[in-house]
Structures are given as C-alpha cells and as structure tokens.
Amino acid sequence: MISAATVAAWLHHAATLLDEHKACLTDLDAAIGDADHGVNIARGFNAVAQKIAAQPDQSLGLLFKTAGMTLMSAVGGASGMLYGNFFLKAAAVAGDRNRLDDADLLAVLEAGRDGIVQRGRAELGDKTMIDAWTPALATLREALAAEQPLTTALTRCAATAQQAMAATIPLQARKGRASYLGERSVGHQDPGATSTYLLLRSLSETVTNAALLTQEQPT
Amino acid sequence: MIGLVLVTHSARLAEGILELVNQMVQGGTPLAAAGGTDLPEAPIGTDPIKVVAAIEQLLSQDEVSEVLVLMDLGSALMSAESALDFLPDDQRQRVHLASAPLVEGALAAAVRARIGGSLAQVLAEANGALAAKHEQLASWQHSLPPLSAETPTTDPTAYAELTIIVPNRLGLHARPAARLVSLAAQYDAQVTLTHNGRTVPATSLNQVVTLGVRQEDLLVVRATGTDAPAALAALEDLALDNFGDPIEVTEPLEIIAAAAVIAGGDSFAGVPASAGTASGPAYRLRLPALDLEEQTTDDPAAERQKLRAAVDAVIEQLRALRSELGQRAGAAEAGIFDAQILMIHDNDLIQSAEETIELRRIDAASAWNWALRSMVARYRALEDDYLARRADDVADAGQRVLRLLAGLPAESPLFAPPEPAILVAAELKPSDVARLPADQVLGIVTAEGGATGHSAILARSLGIPTVTGIGAAAVASIREGQTIALDGDNGLVWPAPDPTLCDRLLARRTAWLAQRQKAQQQALAPAITLDRQTIQVAANINLPGDLAMALANGAEGVGLFRTEFLYMDRESPPSEEEQLAAYLEAARRLQGRPLIVRTLDVGGDKPLPYLRYPHEQNPFLGHRGLRYCLDHPGLFRPQLRAILRAAAQFPVRVMFPMVSTWDELVLVDALIDEICAELQTEQHPFDEDIQRGIMVETPAAVLLAPQLARLVDFFSIGTNDLTQYVMAADRGNAAVGGLVNAYQPAVLHAIRQTTQAGHAQGIPVGICGELAGDPRATALLVGLGLDELSMTATAIPAVKAQIRQLHTADAARIAETALQFSTVEEIQVYLKQTAPAPEKE
Ligand SMILES: Nc1ncnc2c1ncn2[C@@H]1O[C@H](COP(=O)(O)OP(=O)(O)O)[C@@H](O)[C@H]1O
Ligand SMILES: [Mg+2]
Fold first, then answer.
1. Nearest beta carbon to residue B46 from set A76, A88, A162
2. Does residue B200 sit in the same domain as residue B310?
C-alpha cells in the first residue's frame, strides 16, 4: 500500500536522481541520438517536482496528470511525450484514489507502460525504454503474485530494469532517433532504458524508505 | 476549406516553411505552425500543447472544415498524436495526421487546399509530393554506387560501449582507478571513459581520478580498435569485481568507524606508544619543496629527453619502494605506490610538461613543476574529499621527479607544518622521527606499528605523545589541517574532538608537563635508595647530538649508543675516521662518564640502503646484528678499529648485539686481537683491554649466560628484542602487540636468570630495553639486582625519583613475589599496588 504522499516523494526523488545522472544520460544520447536526453528529462522531472510541490494533497489521478502534462511540455524530446503519456494513462487508472494497494500500483504502472507503447509503438528489442519497462514490470507482477512484500518486489523490479538496461547495448535501434544510425547503434546503451531504470530505482528506494519510516514511528 | 498545421522541432523551420507556402498561396490557405518549444534553454523540440493550440486556432475559423497535420519526425509525430488525445471528440474527428514529407507535402497540400480540395484530395496531393522530385532526379541515380550487401559497413564491435554503475563506496578512488587504468592499457584498443559530460582516455590515471566518479555514478566506457571487445569484457569483469576492492567492507573505514563506536563513540583506538596528550591540526610528512629557478633552453628536445629519463627513474624508485613495502606490509598497502607510478607515468601530465618545454622553451624541471602544480590543483578541486586527498600522492610522486631533475638525492619526507601540529603518517621510519623538529610536533599518530617499534621508542625519548596502530583507513580519513586530539596514555585518537575534550586533554597535558619538569630538576642528583645504595642510571642515545638532552635529564653515562644511526641516510658506510670522531665527541661530552658503544645492529627491521641483503623470509630471525657483521669484516673492521681507538682516550666500552653462541664471541675476540695488532703496527693508540659486553636479547644468550659470562666483562639485557624472541611475537605487528610485553612472566624469568648468571661470574648486568625506562618497573628491576638501568633520556627523571623511594630489601621482596605469578595481568596489577608511586603519573 502506498499513499499519495509516497508517490509525490517518488517524483521528487526521481527528479533528484535523474538530475544527478543527467550528464551520463546525455552522454549516452550523444552516442546514438542528439545529446539531449539527460538534460531534457532532468528538466522535465524538475518541473514536475516543482509543480506537485506547489499543489499538495491532490488525488493520485491529478498528481499523475500534472506530471504527464508537465513532462509533455517541459521535455521537448520524444521521451517527454512517452513519459508524459505514461503518467496520463497512469492517471486514468488511479482516478481519484488517495492510496494504491499493491495490485493498484501494478495496474497503474502497466497502464503507463501501455501508454508508452501506444505513443511510440515500440516492440521489445527495438532498443527503447520499453525494453526496460516490460521485463521490469513482469518481474514486479511475478513478485507480487508470489506474495512478496512490496518493497522486495520493487527492489527486484528495479534490478530487472537495470539488467534490461544493460541488455539494450547489443541491440540495433529500430525506433527513435537512434534507428537512423542503423547498425552503428549496436554497442551502445539506450538512454531511455537507462532513465527508465533510474525511475524504477527511485520508486523502489522511495517506497523502501517510506516503509522504514512507518516501522520506526508506528502511527 | 482544409487548414494545415505544421509541427516541427524548430520554430525557425516552421517560420521558413510558412513563408515559403504563403508565397505560393498568397494567404489563401489557413495555416498554423507549432514549431519548437517554449523552453528558452531547449528551444529545439516539440510540445503537444502548442500543437493543440495550432489546431484549435484553425478549427475556430469558420471557413476551416477540417485540418491536416504535417510534421517532421520523432517527437513531432508523438506530439501530434498526443495533441489528438487532448482534443474533444468532435474536434478530433475533423483532424487528420499526414505522413507526407514536410516541406514538399506542405506546399502541395496548401496549393490543393486553396483551390478547394476535399481532405482526401489534399492528403493525396501531400502524399504524392515527392513523385515529381523523384522523376526529375531519376537520371542521377545511376551515378551512385549501387547499395549492395557488400557495402562495407562499420564493424559494430569495433566501437563498443559499456555502462558501469560504480559500486565502490569511495567511488573510483586511486586504487580502483589504478587497476582500471592498468587493465585498459593492456589492450590494443582506444578506451575512453565518459562521466558527466567529460570524456577522458582510460589510460590516464590522473584524468580518470579527476573525473571525480562517486559510488553509484554511471560511467560510460567506449572502446575502439582490434581488442575493443576484449578490453570491454575485461573492464566489465573488473567492475563486477568491485574494481578489485573488497566487497562486503568496501573500505576499511567502515570497520574502523564501527570499532571506534565500540571504543567510545567518537575515537579511533590504537596502541599507546608514548605518554601525554595533544590536540591540534593534523599534518603529514612532505617531501621538501624545491626552490626552482626557471631557465630558458635552446634545446627543448634535450629537456624533453631529460624529463622522460627522470620520470622513468622515479618510476624505478617507486617500484623498489613498492616491493620493499609489499614484503613488509602486504600488497594492499603497497598499492599506493602503484597508483603513484600511474600518476606520474601519465601521458596527460607528461605531455603538458613537454608542451610547456616546447612553447616556453624552459628547462624540464620548471616545466614539470608547472604541469604538476596544475594537476595537483585539479585533484584538490575534486568535490570528493577522499579523492581530493590524493592530491598529496600526486604531489609527492611529482616532487621525486623534481629532485631527480635538480640532481638532488631522493630524500625522505619532512615535517614542516605552518604551526605546531600533530604528525599523521602511515608509518614512520626511525630516521624520519630522528629528524623531526621536536618543537613543531605536538603528537604523533600512525597507522602501523605497536608500542615498541623503533619509531615509538624515539617518540618516547623526545617526549612526544604518540598513538600507533590506528589503521590505514583511519589515518586516510584524517584530513590535512583538521583538528584532532590524541591520548598517548590510553591509545586513543579523536578525529573530531569537541572543545571540552580538548580542554580536558590540555589540562592533563599541562599537569604532565609540570610533573615532568619537576622530576627533571631532581634528575641531576644521583639515584640513591633509602638504604643508600646507588643505582646507575644511564641513557640510550642514537647520535652524539642526543647527549645534550641525556645529560640535562641526569644521565650518568651512556648504556647504549645505537651506532646504526651513524650509518643511516647516506650512500655508503661512515669511514673509520668519521666514526672515531663521533665516538670521541660523545665520550668528550660525557666528561669521564662511561660510554657503551654497541656495534652495528642492522638487518631485520633496520635495513640500510647500501648494504645488500638477500631477501629473507623472516628478517628478525635472519642475518642481523653480530651475525651479519662477522660475515662482513669490510663493514665491521672500521667500526671496531674506531671503537678501540676511542677507548684509548676515554672510558669507552664495546657491546655486541644479537649474540646467540659461544663461537661468535670467540670470533669477535680473535678479530679484536687481529685489529689490535694492526693498530699497533700503524702506531695508533688503542685500548686492547677494552671492556667487552654483549646484549642479552636472544633466548639462547639467556640460557647460555653462565658460560657467556666467562667471556665478557658485562651483560646488558635488551628487553625489546628479548621480549619478542621469548614471546615469539613480532613487535611491529599490532595484532600480536599484546604478547610483546616485557612484564610477561617468561621475560621476567629470563631477566632474573641472566642477572644471576652474570653475578655468579662477578660481572655487572644492566638493562637497556624499554622496560628500564618504565617507572612502574623500577622496583622490580632493582629487586632483580640489575646494576645499571639505561633508558631513553626523558625517562630518567621519573625513574630516578622511583629509585629514591625504594628500599632494596623491599624491592627484592617485590621482585620475588612478582616472579611467583603466572600471568602478565597479575604481575602488572601487583606492581601497581606495591609501587611506592611518590608522584602519581
Ligand atoms: N518510438 C519509441 N518508443 C519507445 N521509446 C522511444 C521511442 N523513440 C525514442 N524512444 C526512447 O526515447 C529515448 C530518447 O529520448 P530523447 O533523447 O529525449 O528523445 P529525442 O530522440 O527526441 O531526442 C530513446 O533512448 C528511447 O529509449
Ligand atoms: Mg535525444
């Protein structure tokens, strides 16, 4: 079970983490794209963090919608549209809920992922962020089905994303800017898959921290 | 009418197309553009909201029935699609997205729309817009080489990439970075590392370290060249292996920190090596900075050559240091030299020095100095503290090159803090301690060593509060200039002491200094027991220069002149004449008091650079002391000759270290006879009846003491070595430091046995180890019947004060009782209870 406050904390943490790694993400994009992914995505998420800080106590639907709309306008690149759609679709599933149980969270994330596919039409193996999202969410689904605690499940989900991110290196890009490079895109890690890993990692870290906090001071 | 919306990444491109189209349709077609973003810092890109606005603007015009959207690529498609999502259903049905080429499509569509085409007609026009172009340019196609399967494509593996999430707790600090650099250099590949927008060659340690990579940072490794895949695979393995650092305890810092918490919350626990307390800024040993005068040169090539040669030579020096330290302390500790080697064997650094030579036409040393300083500054500027501290390592290695270029011998580092400070070092060589400016050193903290290493002994003799053995990581965690505090009585070091603690330590220090001063005043008087027995109290010295301090403290002679210090810090052994001068100087300063000269005691922990030692598995059990000297008469003879000659004028005695057999003494006697005959013919005055003694410091000498006593004129018990040999525990090894305790009953029995054997033969027995200078042992030693106590100068006053409180009969009883006990704890507790302790320490 996670609260709207935890989701807001996730988005803040994601902004920090992406900002910390923006140079690296941009480096990755420089190799097979136009060297803007890190800067773009960091700017986008920082804008999201600011927006949601300015409008506290929103329902999850509104929170995700704010995030999605902000990303669409503040990123500029393909990833802005993709992550933006992720959050818009997530918003539709979350509706006016204020907390998500484990199954809700999975549903929200899967709807978001479907939003990315809907917008980008990438298939597995196209060397895009989808190559990170799909296996990572499959892990999450399995772990929750096996009744693992949410913190464990999310940790495993992030770990899968990390492996999947590295597994994009040998792939040849068939979607996005990198596809213009054809074979020359082989041997490089996909920047979008990398930011997806960071996003999932920040989710796992935030939820774990929140769990620790509630353990310490039971309400 | 059909309206057109243009979606592009660039506002200017949108403007341009609008201009182009309008020129043809003269404003006759409704047009709108969504070009670029509204983000000043990232104007190139697309924004679905702008697309929505453009569409709505057209749909709001009455004449516009439907809208066709044309776009460039990538996110423009996605923005357009997203825009449709945002439109209400009724509007969305009036909008269509076209996959037509943007410029040609816009022109064709606009023209068709103007003349009133339906949506389908306009779309068809746009989609067909390239046909005319194709047709016209078809005649050019043949001049291009056919695109075939054989078209050479770049081998994708020739340029490969790897992303590493750096696992090391301290980031890519010197040692893991060094491993990465050496590994990358082994492959026939150009490997680069990219981190936060900076790309550097993986073969430059300085550049790799100054990337400032921290734990969890992403590092992109790219490789080109034949071996690129292999290089990346190897680097990946290295990264998986935590770059060779231990995984669980990523750095020992954590263990130490944890241990410190147990020890008392905020301090590192070490070995109490020299009493007293101190607080003040921490400083390290430094190679002395050189005054360089810049010189211009006509022959830059020669200067470059010189530079390369110097760098190579220093690398050799560092390799030698590495293998020496590696043998003594293990490969992990020696790793810092590997890093230093890479730091100066660094293309970036060497090239920048060489460029300076070429551009400014100056000498190699000055150019190197320039390059080095900017490299050191780059390290200092790193945000990560741990990495910033590596600036010292670069500076140190670089200084070696400068000294070499300046034709100066490689010198040991100096302690030259801007204000009195606490010296913090990995390890101190006795020669380092010997050269310390005593008034600048508030205290000493070292990573290595126990309480009885030579450095600790020296520190004690200088009265410098010292804690040893706090561990390498603890030492590395202390920053230059940071205020720290230490308690040499209890072996504690506080890396961040609070002011009240400092005040407490200061108060203790003041009391300690006052007490020391009072004892010093009384020190000059002889040490006479309550029953009017006089006990000789002498000093141990290293160089004649130490005598001022010894005499000021009340020494009644020198019980141990450690002559190896005459042999240190030089390129060859001192000549006979030089030695003679030193012995005469010491004897003269003693004004008739006796001087016991111990012959060269080298080997083991006290190597001399110009003497060749075969590698020994166990130097402490190896070729050292008298054993070594007997086998090297070329070294030994000049010393014996000098001692014998000095003895002609003054009460000089000779003493041999590390004796374990009767035969050794027979050989020495024969050698002395031979030398006396030589001196006779050369007509040098000498004393052939010189008093000869031995250090009793091996279990063999203790057990054989009754026999050996017949061959010599005195015994002197060296409790430091004796303790480690009796206890079979290395005094430099902090792990067994507890065993190396002269109060161990086994050691005390050895002392008693030796004393009894000496006295039975009618020769005096002294003691010149650490124990002699410990006031807690005075009653015991007097009780055991020792005739002379020889100690580090600063211990003399307190020991004399103890003796004055003693009655020899009491002392004998105390000794008798102490020897009944079975454990070192019982003995120490007992001695504490019985000690007269006139002035509490
Ligand atoms: N069609 C797509 N479907 C899914 N992901 C995509 C698609 N196109 C691009 N991406 C992702 O977006 C990342 C690039 O993002 P970014 O640099 O912000 O966009 P742009 O290519 O517009 O500069 C890629 O690494 C890839 O993971
Ligand atoms: Mg990009």
1. A76
2. no
